[in-house]
Amino acid sequence: MKKADVVVLGGLSGITAGISCRRHYPDKKVIIIRKEGTVLIPCGIPYIYGTVGGPENNVIPDGLLENNGIELVKGEAVDVDRQNKVVTMKDGQTIGYEKLVFATGSVPLIPPIPGIDKKNVYPVKKEFDYLSDVYRQMKDVKDLVIIGGGFIGMEFADECKKGREINVTVVEALPHCLQMAMDNEFCDEAQTKLVETGVKIMVNEKVEAILGNEKVTGVKLADGKELKADMVILGIGAVPSTELAKKAGLELGFRGTIRVDRYMKTYTDPDVFACGDCAEKVSFFDGRPSGVMLASTATSEARIAGANLFSPTHQNCGVISVFSTVINGRAFGVAGLTERTANQVGAKIVVGKAEAPDTHPGGMPNSCQTKVKLLFAKDTGVILGGSLSGGKPVGEMVNVLSACIMHKMTADDMVMFQMGTHPALTSSPIMYPIVNAACKAVIPLKG
Amino acid sequence: MKKADVVVLGGLSGITAGISCRRHYPDKKVIIIRKEGTVLIPCGIPYIYGTVGGPENNVIPDGLLENNGIELVKGEAVDVDRQNKVVTMKDGQTIGYEKLVFATGSVPLIPPIPGIDKKNVYPVKKEFDYLSDVYRQMKDVKDLVIIGGGFIGMEFADECKKGREINVTVVEALPHCLQMAMDNEFCDEAQTKLVETGVKIMVNEKVEAILGNEKVTGVKLADGKELKADMVILGIGAVPSTELAKKAGLELGFRGTIRVDRYMKTYTDPDVFACGDCAEKVSFFDGRPSGVMLASTATSEARIAGANLFSPTHQNCGVISVFSTVINGRAFGVAGLTERTANQVGAKIVVGKAEAPDTHPGGMPNSCQTKVKLLFAKDTGVILGGSLSGGKPVGEMVNVLSACIMHKMTADDMVMFQMGTHPALTSSPIMYPIVNAACKAVIPLKG
User: What is the pLDDT of residues B241-289, one digit of tens each?
Assistant: First the structure.
């Protein structure tokens, strides 16, 4: 029987957990078991269909594992015997472990819509061969319907439109696309940008059925409208991949995720850890269970899990939820709560808004107006969240906000924030919008 | 006699101090007195000569003052009677104040080199007409020598080369350009980038004399070499502009700056404040006086000064020193200490380095390899500084580091940093180099 000190089950966060473990415990032998021959960069999947031109350009090289002295076993783990600490593979092979990490991720949510299993209806699975097939099929597609106007749906729509003679329609059940992620003004801005590319957006529309015989020919909406479609992409969310964990007797929690403590250790077994989409998350803000599934969150948890395997040192403070996206060249980002989510939990807040070009003077090349909206707790002045739209720097500005949130900075602290500025790289020091948005909240907070 | 609640003397940080005051004390009347008809964006000055094409494209609009209900008085303040709280202008006009703010900035350091006052030898003054004259003169220049390889010198060299048939030589007295700001590996990288544009760099070279009759014809170096020159730009530093403060009897401190406490209040007079280059700074790290002069630091101090004028609320934690620059399209940034400055103060440190493309996959358009170097205190694991080079996102990544430094994050904290990531905007969550550099420091810190 093969044996390792640490066995990791899974893809993206599994790689990070393995590397983290090897860094902290260089004498430990680590094996990663995974089904997929190739691991895709999950957030890069929509970009396969446009900017990067094919799935082969969106893979995580296995060299990362070799360089970190991690052994890769390709195949499917079908059983975990926790008493004897043995994983059994589909081909009968057994692998012993001292510590086991579940990093089994998530699979797309497939709603019970009639006709959902017709040919050319594609939930977004993170599988290389599957997505390659979608890529090939898309060559002949004339009418693409995307069900779900979240990140995946919006990014797919934007990318599939690039360089193709294709009609793209996004169907969203809520009043706004991206509504679960952003406040209305940012949703509106993102929708406007996407519509500019020629994509059609339909909101407040529920899908009643997928039409066609063997292959999809259209989508029927609840209000009776019918959309022509020779391909449908489904981007309405994901569910944790925890069948094996359940079979192994691990306690599951919120929405079927594996219950873990702050060290990413399972509630059930001190020698079994979990991280990423398959692991239960709690909110940084109130400690309640959170449904956030982000690759960046998954890798943060994986670093924590890897560090704690043989000695509990790193505590997860709960998920802040930090993300960004790009729609038709405009970047959007959110860290922490939005005004919508703050209102949902009844938080009394003060909002500060500011905007400025992301160069100074604004006449520098490729200058882009950046909008910032910050939320502070009315009673304490502590930052609860921030939303941005603008150019490429938005991707790191949202990380500035994440650092501020992690440290519970108040609006007063942020007024005194010492940012660096440069004409070609940032807003001017007078206008720097993160600081100026905080400035605008200071007086209302006191009032 | 004109009267205001608050009189501010000066340009850039004066505007910010005025706006901050009006925001905190909306019922107070604020007057800004300044000599310059037009305030230039200070960090944009080198870009006048290339990218933005002329000084008129690099001004701070006075609309900012109007919008904030601030009165502008153009002219030179020549006397301050602190007993009667009156400022006297060169034309004899007097203006009464309740609170006075010195934001008088700095002027270029002019070294006692023989011939330094010849025609076409230009220290970098922040004056519109002066810089317009330099702009006009540069049209006919064939051989430009820039004395000083700091930010100003390097940026001027890079910009003046753009779209001109011109020989540009940078003369630096130290072994590396940018040596006061960055560690050698980043200095080397910046020099290599600049040399690629055709600029000639001479290090370890001291200037002995400026040659020529009325007008400069060359530069003589200490080792006897002579460089042909029909224009010389001097970028070797700045000195605080504090003549009026001295005349008014305010206590001066380090390198002639106005002594202030943590509220930016002068030591001498509770009704007089100072901020920006003219005000004394102490280091965030050890509280010792610091010679840092940055526009971003100046505006941070101005926000603090403005908030404290009628009630002490905001405390300056000392200057972290956060900045970025761009040389031939590559961005460089530093927040806090460098390895060099840490060694100078005898700090025992652990260094973590990482690099990654600033998109994922790396094949996304305009992807740029980003290098990160972080410094942590050996005993406590607290971050002391970070250096970066890469693409446009470096300008905000250095601000992520600033937030981490401000909050004394440890390497362990930074391992758990929750960054947002996106294919077109950031490195991949597995590779995110700020976090991975911290990861690499964790074990050496414990060892």
Answer: 999 999 999 999 999 999 999 999 999 999 999 999 999 999 999 999 9
CATH class of residue range B110-236: alpha beta
Q: Which pair of tokens denotes residue B288? A: 């010792």
Would you say the C-alpha torsion A390, B293, B152, B188 has a positive or negative sign? negative
Task: Please state which CATH number belongs to domain B2-106+239-308.
Answer: 3.50.50.60
Contact A13, A276 (CB under 8 A): yes
Strands B207-212 and B200-202: unpaired
Bridge-based pairing of strands B383-390 and B330-336 is antiparallel
CB count within 10 Å of CB A313 equals 14
Residue A204: CB atoms within 10 A of its CB come to 13
Architecture of domain B329-446: 2-Layer Sandwich (3.30)
Question: How many Cβ pairs within 8 Å bridge chains A and B?
Answer: 289
Pair B374, B409: CB distance under 8 Å: no
CATH number given to A2-107+239-308: 3.50.50.60
DSSP 8-state symbol, A141: -
The C-alpha atoms of residue A202 and residue A381 are separated, in whole angstroms, by: 39
List beta partners, residue B200.
Answer: B169
CA distance A440 to chain B (A): 8
Evaluate whether A111 touches A118 at the Cβ level (below 8 Å): no
Return the domain boundaries, chain A: 2-107+239-308, 110-236, 329-446
Which residues in chain B have Cβ-Cβ distances shorter than 8 Å to A446? none
CA dist., res. A105 & res. A13, Å (int): 8
pLDDT, tens digit (0-9, with 9 covering 90-100), for B351-378: 999 999 999 998 899 999 999 999 999 9
ipTM over 0.90: yes
Distance to chain B for A106, nearest Cα, Å = 17
